Structures are given as C-alpha cells and as structure tokens.
Amino acid sequence: MKWNPTQLAVFTALIFLPVIVSAQEKNDSLSIAGKGEERNVMLNASDATKPREIQIGLPSEDVNVYENGLPAVYSSAVHQLSRHWRSDASLGKVGLMNPMESAIKTGNIAYSVDSHSNFGQKEFKAVFNYRTNTFGWQNFDFNISGGIGDRWLYTASVYQNFDPGYFKVRFTDFSDRTQIYHAGLTRLLDNGKVSVLYKFSKSNALGSMVNSAPFIYVGDGSVKEIPGFALGTTSYAPIGGEFEYMDILDGKIKKGRWGDFTGNYAHDVTAHFDYNFNNGYQLNVNAKYMAAPRADYCDFGGSSIFQATAVDMLYKQGETDPYIGLAEGRRTWIHIGKVSNALLTAELNRRFGAHDLRMGVNEWFYHLDYHSSSFQWTGTVSPYPDILVKRHEDGSASQFYGFNELSPEFTKGYENKLALYATDNWQITPKFNLYFGGRLEYYRMSADQIPFSRYPGFHIGDIHDYTDSEGNARSVAIEPRNVLKNKLNYAATLQGIYNINNHFGVTADATVATRYPRINEYAGTGPSEEQYKRVTIPLVRGGITYRNNWVDLTSMVTYISKSNNIDQQNVTKPGTTQSKTTLLIYGIKTIGWTTSAEIHPFKGFNLHALLTLQKPTYDNYFIKSPFEGVPDLDANGNIVKEIPQILIEFDPSYQLNDHLRFWLSFRYFGKTYANLTNALFFNGRWETFGGINWTVNKHLDLGCTVVNFLNQKGASGTINGAELLSKEESGKYKNYYMSGSYLRPFTVEFSALLKF
User: What is the mean pLDDT of residues 223-250?
Assistant: First the structure.
C-alpha cells in the first residue's frame, strides 16, 4: 500500500509529537467485570457516535448501554441510543457487564456498557472537552460539580455536537446535530445519598440516509471505486427538494423534504438512592421516567444498479431527452414514533463470610406509538444523484412510486417486565470460586398491529381485494388488531473458576436466557399465533487461564445459539428493482475459540491481544421465493451474513513517562458474507486507530487520534439487491456495480481537556 505525503506526515506526527488522547478515550477503555481485560468500545469504525458491538457470535438484538443501572434507552428499535446518550463529561464511571451479568440483571445475553453519572463531590470541579477533526467536526462538552454546604452536591453538564459528516449534505448543514443537557442535586445522608437528575436531549442525525454508496464489486471479495465517486467522502443522497409519500395512517398522499423526519427530543428524570445499613446490607435504587414525544428517523435502502436506456422512459427533471446511464432503484422509509417509559431497578447486597449475595428487582414499563411509511424512487448512480422522472404510456409521469409496498410498519401499545433476580459470588476455597444466579421475569405485552401482507397503496382503512391460494376472491379491511400476551421469561448462569496454582487455572460457565417476541417485532406483519414461540439463547464456555508477573491469558471454547429469531427481510429479485417483504423465523448457532491476553513485558508497555475463531451458521432458515423464476432459498448451514469467522484485536500502548502515552488499536475482521446465500462476500479488513497522550500539566491535556490510518476503503455489511442471488449466478457479478455501506474514511481528530 502506498501512502500519500499527507498520510505519512500525519502518521509521523502521531508517533513523535507530544499530543494526548482526549478524556473520552480515557473513559472508553472499559473493564469487563471480574476480568482485567480492556475493550475500547467507543472506537467504532462504522459510527463515531455510539459504542461498537463486541462480537459474541450472534447478531446484536438491541442497544446494550445502561445508565445508572437502567437502560439508557429502553429499545433502540425506534428511539435510537445515539439520540439520547453519548460518552461525555456527565459520566463519572463507565464499565462493561459481561454476558453472564447482563443476562441476570437485564435478561439479555451480551456485553453491555454500564455507565454511571457524575453526582458531584464537596470540592468544586470543572471539566471541559473540545474535539475537532479534519472534516470540520466541532464537539464540546463540559461538566461542573461541587458542594453546597455539608449535605448537598450538584452537577451540571452540556454536550454539543456539530458534525457535518465526511461530505457536504446539501439539504442540511449537519449530518449529526445533537444537544444533551444534564442537571442534578444530591442530598448526603449519614449512611448514603439520594440524587435527582434531569436530562434533556435534542438530536437531528441523518444515519443511513448518508452511509451507503455505489462501488464496483470485483468478484474476489474486493471492491473498487467508481470513477468520480470517492468511497466514504462522496454523497449518495439527493441534493434536496420535495418528495411524496402515502401516510399509512390515512392513505393520503403527502409531501415532505429530505431531513424533515430526523428530529428527536426527550426528557428524562432519574432518582438515585444509595443506603448502607448498620447490619451490612447495602440498598441501591434507581428509578427513571423518560418521554420522547418525537423519536423520528429516515432510512435509505437500495436494490440493483442497472443500465438505463430510452426504453425505460426515465428522465432527469426538466429534460426532454431520456436518461441513458447507470441508475438504481432506491427505497425510503419514514419512521415516526412517540416513546415513554417508567423504569425501576432496586438491588440489595450483603456479604456473608465467603458469600457475596445480590438480590434485585426490575419493574420496566415501555409505551410505544409508532408507524412508518415507505416509497421508492429511481436515482442516477452519481454524486448527489438526480431523482429520475418515470413517464408512463398514458402520458402521466411520476418520481415516486411503490407507496407502502415495502415493509411499512405500525404498532401502538406497551410492554411491561417485572423481574426478580439473585446472584451469589461464593469463594468456596482460596482456589475455587463459584458464581451463580437466576432471573424470573413476568412479561406482559399489548400491541395494536396490522397483520396483513403489504402491497402498493397499503394503508389503514383500505379494502384490499385479493385471490387466496385456492383461487377464491377475497377482500379484507386493513385495520389494526390487538395482540395481548402474558408470559414468563427466565435466565440462569453458573460459573466456576479453579486456580490450580499461582499461574494456571480453569474456568467454565453456562448461561441461558429466554424471551418472547417484543412489541417492536409486531410493527410489521408480526408472528402469527402458530409462529409465536419462546426465543432461547444458551451460552456455554470453558477454558484455561494463565498469569504471571507479565502476562494474563485466557483461552476458551464457546458455544452460543438462538432459536426462533424474528426478522422482517426485504428481498429483491436478482438483477432487478422488484422487491418484496417477507417475515422470517429462524435459528442461529455458533461455536468458537477465543484467546485473550494482557501482556506487559517491561515498565510502561502494555499489549492487549485477542484472537477469535468462530463459525456462525443459520438453522431452519427458509425463504419462499415471492418471484417467478427465482428458486426458494434454503440457507440452513450457511454462514450468517455480516459476522466474520476470524476476529483479531491488537492494542499496544506505551507510557513513556508521567506525561506521554502512545497507543495503537488494530482490529481485523475476517471474510464476511454480504448476502444470505453466501454467494457474495467481502474480504477481511483492518480497522485501525492510533493516538498519543500528552498531559501538559494538572489542568490541561491535549490529544490527537487518527481513525483508519491505513486508509482502508472497503465496503462492509450487505450488498443491496443481492439477498436471493445464488452461488451459480455469482460469476455474473464480477466487476459489477453495486451499492452498500462502507468504513469511516481516514480522519485525524484533535482534542483538548481542561480540568479545574
């Protein structure tokens, strides 16, 4: 790989200049509970605003970030995490729950970010963070905290993000404009404290409207740029103007503008109570009410890129000659939601000799009022694509079509989780530790849904005429129907650690968690009564540990699976723009081997290294083809798309002295399949970060971080329109024009931290 002079200069500066990583990076090196392992979860090569997903062999179910013991957002299916939570100066402590803890405390098996607010202290403190990058990003946040008399503490924070993105978006000034405000008071008690925190967030972010691009799929797992279209730094979103859509609520054709449906704001009030009883019990209570009267976002998707000719009767706006050139069928979904929740978690802890007991209760109530509308359009394959006009044989013309044909959604209702859980960390002998726990959850859900297949012109109140499978004429009124469920979910975990001697040990654990379909899974057609089944996720791990004065190593074999996974998939007829929506229920299973090590061979140097080999495969995955001439898809045994089989992390750092620290982070993601049939794939890729820390004095830190310093320009995720492409047809897709998502481009970020 050849580097240009600018990259060489920047990388040289990265290695030799006295600069420091911001306080955000300091907070972002998170410890897994019970382990010394560190994971830089905020170093995300796909999105700078949210934590990366730590792979456990399954696709992520939802956001896994907790704030003061409660979900930062209850569900990111509508109210997205990055609209209401950022890793900023309002946080006093950030940790990471392992899958065992997460299963018992939350019911979800995953690595989960566990953040806690800065409640204040008696002495006055102020922290100010400023960040910018080579693309014009401006970000700052600050926190002030202190005491009022002997019994009161206060804290207040402001977070402001002005991110133009990596290219100019013509219909708005910022790709991400987010504001978050915190304020809190704490009353100190003789044996504890009680706090009240208020949080307000307001966010306009474009998300998937701007994170896809066209490229040439070479055919060997690599991609190359289309001439004139720099991958990652060129906009594939339209310049602007009005669009038309059909409101799913009433069937009326309405007009909007790009960027009008990206607004979010929310109010959040949290009460926090800590108390230490004289008999050794510790009580921790967190309660929160959050209301998001507006939780909207807009999605873009694509289908197949084709060569438009005069026969297609496509025209640029205002032109009389037909458009001849590359074009792609594009999809747009407008999501409109209102969300509120009332959450309570209480925990009681006590040590009894060799036992460390925890008992807890969750009472989590979530209300959702959500609908989406979809439409399609055809655009040129070019920077700032034109929306083409389709002229019809009857003399009419239109730019937008296929209203609500592709997975428009609707649901209104609530779900409630009432759970009891308990754990015990039992040090049986100095060499043998046993950790075990259980969770029992009563789950109630009431959802208004529309359990009918979608078609062009689909909306509430429509009378749909159709022919059933036996050839009989039928008609049905499109109206919401209520689904009410009362179920029991459970989770359990058991872990044993035995230290054979001062160096070697063995460890094994088993965890299982269950759940039933959630309210957001009824936004589409939803599972029928026959399809409504318990989702079960078992995780089993076992291996060895070795540690001495310079290395701490763990090597484990892992098995994890998930049954009855529900997914609503838009599938495209290969080589066309014809698409249909289908509901899928299937399983996934993964067996893997992971070795993780913390190595510090000499003073100041530390290396975190991780290797994972895994094989995630589909189970009972079948798609009945909705297209004539396209065979059904049986994906049983296929590798799960987007999940790599090889993962490598390599994070060296060197503390030169009390002022200077150098660090690098390399992550390798092996070959990933880009469609369900495993016909198309992306080669392995490196995600790279680096920086230098300089503590100027006790008041000032300065920082520099380089993102993607190897300047990888590969695509990632899935390839639009290739869902049903067979392996036999894959040979046709050499040097083929496609569209998909991509990595963040080479970026240099600078930061400053002031402390008083």
Answer: 91
Residue 60 has pLDDT above 70, yes or no: no
pLDDT reported for residue 50: 47
- Residue in 149, 154, 159 with CA at minimum distance from that of residue 196: 154
Residue with tokens 């009460």: 271
Say how far apart CA 217 and CA 575 lie, in whole Å: 14
Place of tokens 């075990």: 436
CA–CA dist 753, 440 (Å, integer): 45
What's the Cα-to-Cα distance from 453 to each of 249, 250, 370, 409, rounded to whole Å? 16, 17, 18, 11
Strands (E), 190-252: 192-205, 212-217, 223-224, 242-246
For residues 91 and 51, what is the distance between their CA atoms, to the nearest angstrom? 15
Q: How far apart are CA 746 and CA 166, in angstroms?
A: 10
CA-to-CA distance for 374 and 243, rounded, in angstroms? 12
Question: 330, 332, 331, 325: which is closest to 306 by C-alpha?
Answer: 325
CB 332, CB 298: distance < 8 Å: yes
Tokens of 44: 């995300």
- Please, what is the end-to-end C-alpha distance for the chain in angstroms? 45
Other Cβ atoms less than 10 A from the Cβ of 164: the count is: 17
Residue range 603-657, pLDDT digits in tens: 999 999 999 999 999 988 888 777 777 777 788 899 988 889 999 999 999 999 9
pLDDT in tens, 348-388: 999 999 999 999 999 999 999 999 999 999 999 999 999 99
DSSP, collapsed to helix, strand or coil, labels residue 125 as strand
The pTM score is: 0.88
Non-local (6+) Cβ contacts of 555 within 8 A are: 543, 544, 545, 593, 594, 595, 596
* pLDDT above 50: residue 24: no
Q: In angstroms, what CA-CA distances link 505 with 201, 426, 496, 502, 547?
A: 47, 17, 10, 8, 9
CA distance 93 to 115: 6
Which region, left, alpha or beta, applies to residue 629 given φ > 0 means left and ψ of -120 to 50 means alpha? left
Q: Enumerate the β-bridge partners of residue 476.
A: 464
Angle at 522 between CA 632 and CA 86, to 5 degrees: 105
Give 92's contacts (C-beta < 8 A, 6+ positions apart): 116, 117, 118, 119
DSSP type of residue 53:
P
Of 42, 39, 76, 48, which Cα lies nearest the Cα of 61?
A: 76
Q: Could you write out the three-class secondary structure of 689-745?
A: EEEEEEECCCCEEEEEEEECCCCCCCEEEEECCCCCCCHHHHHHHCCEEEEEEECCC
- Strand, coil or helix: what is 465? strand
Q: pLDDT band for position 10 (50/70/90)? A: very low
d(CA 635, CA 569): 14
